[in-house]
């Protein structure tokens, strides 16, 4: 799963935290919405296999909103349970196959869009 830290949204995040349950709902919706471009970029970057099995492209998922031990919320974006075992071979390669990364490039390509969507969704939620 890709890891992305969002900095620069401190004032919006602090306003959300002061709102309690409503702020929590706004933050969760913003996280899920902002993960969509990353999901799409991963789907676009991964090649289809020639085997008649579920393709990685069809199994890129956005997790439910989770909270870490420090209270930070996050979502995970990446291959689901059915294909995760194969994704690592593509991302990192094997002794017999060169790497064909799709997760890291997708994150790099989507980072600005993710930040923009997060800010937009939070602002929109705070204004309603």
Keywords:
128 residues, mainly alpha, 4 strands, HK97-gp10_tail, elongated, single chain, HK97 gp10 family phage protein, 4 helices, two-stranded antiparallel sheet
Q: Would you kindly provide a written description of the structure presented here, covering whatever features stand out?
A:
This is HK97 gp10 family phage protein. Pfam families: HK97-gp10_like. It comes from Alicyclobacillus dauci. This protein is mainly alpha-helical and 128 residues long. The chain has one domain. Helix content is 53%, strand content 8%. The chain contains four helices and four strands; from the N terminus they run H-H-E-E-E-E-H-H. The protein has helices at residues 10-18, 21-45, 84-92, 103-127; strands at 60-62, 66-67, 73-74, 77-79. The strands form two sheets. It has a two-stranded antiparallel sheet with strand order 1-4. Strands 2-3 form a two-stranded antiparallel sheet. Helix 1 packs across helix 2 (21-45) and helix 1 packs across helix 4 (103-127). The chain is elongated. It starts with 9 loop residues before the first helix and ends with a helix. The mean pLDDT is 85.
Structural class: mainly alpha
Note the main sheet: 2 strands, antiparallel
Determine the mean pLDDT.
Answer: 85
N-to-C series of helices and strands: HHEEEEHH
Number of structural units classed as domains? 1
**SS strand fraction:** 5-15%
First-last Cα distance: 32 Å
Pfam family, one: HK97-gp10_like
Protein name: HK97 gp10 family phage protein
InterPro entries: HK97-gp10_tail
Organism: Alicyclobacillus dauci
């Amino acid at each position: 799963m890709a890891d992305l830290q969002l900095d620069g949204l401190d004032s919006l995040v602090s306003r959300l935290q002061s709102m309690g349950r409503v702020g929590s709902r706004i933050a969760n919706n913003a996280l899920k919405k902002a993960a969509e471009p990353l999901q799409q970029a991963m789907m676009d970057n991964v090649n289809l296999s020639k085997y008649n099995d579920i393709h990685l492209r069809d199994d890129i998922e956005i997790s439910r909103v989770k909270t870490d031990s420090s209270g930070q919320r996050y979502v995970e974006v990446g291959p689901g349970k059915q294909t995760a075992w194969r994704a690592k071979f593509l991302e990192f390669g094997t002794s017999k196959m060169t790497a064909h990364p799709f997760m890291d490039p997708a994150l790099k390509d989507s980072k600005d869009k993710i930040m923009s969507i997060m800010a937009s969704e939070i602002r929109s939620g705070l204004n309603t």
